[in-house]
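Hi support team,

I submitted a single chain yesterday and got back a structure, but I'm not sure I'm reading the token output correctly. Could someone confirm the output below corresponds to the sequence I sent? I've pasted both exactly as they appear in my results page.

Thanks,
R.
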Amino acid sequence: GYREVYFRIHGYRNGTNIYRVQWMSMMIPVMKKWWLDVDFNVIAATMSFGIPPEFQNNPPASTNPRVSVEEWEDLKIYSRTYGENRGDLAHLGQFELLEKALDKANIKTYPYLRMSGGFTRPGYCRQRRDNNDVDSQYFFK
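Hi R., thanks for writing in. Yes, this is the structure output for that exact sequence:
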């Protein structure tokens, strides 16, 4: 689940599962993406965080085959901040509210992708802040 994935990428960041054992500072937010089928069931998900600037030109290779480094193109992110726990039912409703706001601005979204960015690590009771984000790479007009 979510905790296991977080700690898998945490092992990359803290140097325990990379070839060159080096500690990297935490880059927030931790980004999560969910790809949905036509019935809006999750079919794939990823979790990621930014690599600190001093490592970006030569990021360490992971020793864990389930952790990889990927390069993202520059993005325009539209965000709706939500200050409660991602387990709350109202959390999912934030995506709909963000989509409505984007519709008013004539920005169409890809309906089968959800993104969020969080600022609290798993196991720390309540989520301090969670943003529901939509990535412009998935927009169409």
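A quick pointer for reading it: The mean pLDDT is 76. Let us know if anything else looks off.

Best,
Support desk
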